[in-house]
Amino acid sequence: MAIFRLLIDGTMYAYKKDTGFAHQLTMTKPGGLRALSAPRALAAVIIAVRPNIFNSTVARGPPNWEESMNTLASVISKPLSPVSEPFVSRLLQYAHAKTALDCLAAEIRHMMAPVPPNMSCSQVATSEVKEGVLDGKAIQRVVMVLRSSGCVNALKKGSCTMCGHVRGTTRGNEISVSDFKTQIDEELSKFDWAQFPMLCVYNSGSFLNPDELPIEARDHILKRISDIHSIRRLVIESRPEFITPSVLDTLEGTLTNTELEIGVGLESSDDVVRDLLINKNFTTIDYLNAVSVMRGRRVNLLTYVLLKSPFLTEREAIDDAQETIEFAFRTGAHIVSIEPVSVQDFTLVHFLHEVGQFRTPWIWSVIEVLRRTYHLGHIRLGGFEFFPLPSVFVHNCARCNGSMIQAIRRFNETENIHVFDGLACQCERDWHSDLRKSADYLPERILATLAQIDSRIVLERMVEKFQATNIVTH
To answer: What is the pTM (predicted TM-score) of this model?
Structure first.
């Protein structure tokens, strides 16, 4: 029995090919599994995915779930047929593409080397000094990555397609409160904080998820940082569902001497890009709920915007990043960090790069996005703060990479768009050539690409190359 599955917004939709669409599209909600009539089932998926992705003229229903389904169901023509109804055909393509990517991601995770037996849980994974900007001035900041059990979403539902952070974690093996306290206490003691007014503390997941960072350990970390008065700003990261009023009350009550910045990986304002191409497992509504909770607080919202999700063309990637930055500032972000996709080992992006189906974005594309959006608000250029380190970063060509990276660093220090003025290289012609490339409807291009690849051979080659480089992540 062939079953195509579509998971969106915590809801599983299944189409059983042998018995037909009309009676076998089902919905799993907290209340259990129930069959839906074809119009109501399709309406439910429209609401979850957004109708404009399928070039549908059906308007979005009201915010109420049941009322929305009834409203949309009433205007969907009957009977529905996967053969005669292009909309349904596209929906099934989406489900098929999602299933194919989920299965491939599971294969990739299976090939990942086991957690090193000597991985230390009482020491941070890494820490380093980076450039930064605070209150319009160039500063030095410290970036710490705690050794953690890993992102729960990645462990349960699969990592984001570009994210390899889980390799540097215990992958679900519990880390004690005592070990977390030891990590932060020892690392804080290593720096003269009078020189570093900003501290970034990451845990390869959500800092505010108690299943990843126990509340007792989190509160200890926050108290220790608040007691160092020369640390003026703390930056952490979280998925939106863990940003709640009660959590923010605790954070503000503890960080009495420190500004707080919370990074949220919106990545794309397009729900389908975020679900199908990134596997983020939250919706735009979830993000907006977090924005609403943070509004009026002593908390700055840092929104991460991805540049070049897999399967997007270079031009699509630029447009998607621009639209997402505009959306982020329009809806309440204080800061945006543009994150050009890099190649991190044992990710879907790594797999596609291995077979020549993914190129990290051109630095020309980064500059283009900046030129379109720098006037909207405070923008940083990220993409270089990962653990374990990626194998391939955003780049142009060997002739100009050095000067381009230096320009990015100067922009992050000064926020002056004119640092890119006068930059030129012959490779700009190749970039313009990439911009002229077009592509099919997203699910079609995904399925066509994967159909050409023998995943078993590629995965074995990935493992062999990884072992040959003798990379150590502990």
So the answer is: 0.82
